[in-house]
Amino acid sequence: MRIGIDVLAVDELDGLLQRDWFRRYAYSESELSEARGQSAERAREFLTGRFACKESVAKVLGCGFAGGVRPCQVSVHRSGSGAPEVRLAGPAAERCAAQGITAIEVSIAHKRGLVAAVALGVAGGAQRLPPCPPTVAQALAAEIAQQAEAS
């Protein structure tokens, strides 16, 4: 088992997010597409959260982004329950397999201008937890959305 964590200020990537080359380097097309459908402020927070998640996954892989893995090879999507889910490609997937990691679980939190992400690499025969029933996930998502609107 391996653990990675990353914390970013929401405004930490502001300069880089304005550059097309960085967006192509750091994000998959599906992540960028999702961000385009959001307000500018929400897209900023969304992309910063995704980048923190990618950093935490790179730590699980034990290489960081200087070790041949690029951030766009670590793509973060929503599962059917709404939870973040990681998909690896290219050298990121190869490194994961070489380390015997069979699953990577992630969590992303946004609060008061900060974004935190945690990744847990599960090795060998460990099994993933089943997803929450949709009704529980939907209730949590609604509660989180209400809290975000209130702050």
UniProtKB/TrEMBL annotation:
Enzyme Commission number(s) from the entry: 2.7.8.7
UniProt keyword annotation of Signal present: no
Family annotation (InterPro entries): 4-PPantetheinyl_Trfase_dom, 4-PPantetheinyl_Trfase_dom_sf, ACPS, Ppantetheine-prot_Trfase_dom
Catalytic activity: apo-[ACP] + CoA = holo-[ACP] + adenosine 3',5'-bisphosphate + H(+)
Statement: the UniProt record of this protein carries the keyword Transmembrane: no
Molecular function GO terms recorded: holo-[acyl-carrier-protein] synthase activity
Subcellular location: Cytoplasm
Cofactor(s) demanded: Mg(2+)
Keyword entries, A-Z: Cytoplasm, Fatty acid biosynthesis, Fatty acid metabolism, Lipid biosynthesis, Lipid metabolism, Magnesium, Metal-binding, Transferase
Protein residues bound to Mg(2+): D6, E55
All copies of domain 4'-phosphopantetheinyl transferase, residue ranges: 2-98
Function: Transfers the 4'-phosphopantetheine moiety from coenzyme A to a Ser of acyl-carrier-protein.
Recorded family membership: Belongs to the P-Pant transferase superfamily. AcpS family.
Protein name: Holo-[acyl-carrier-protein] synthase
Species for this entry: Streptomonospora algeriensis
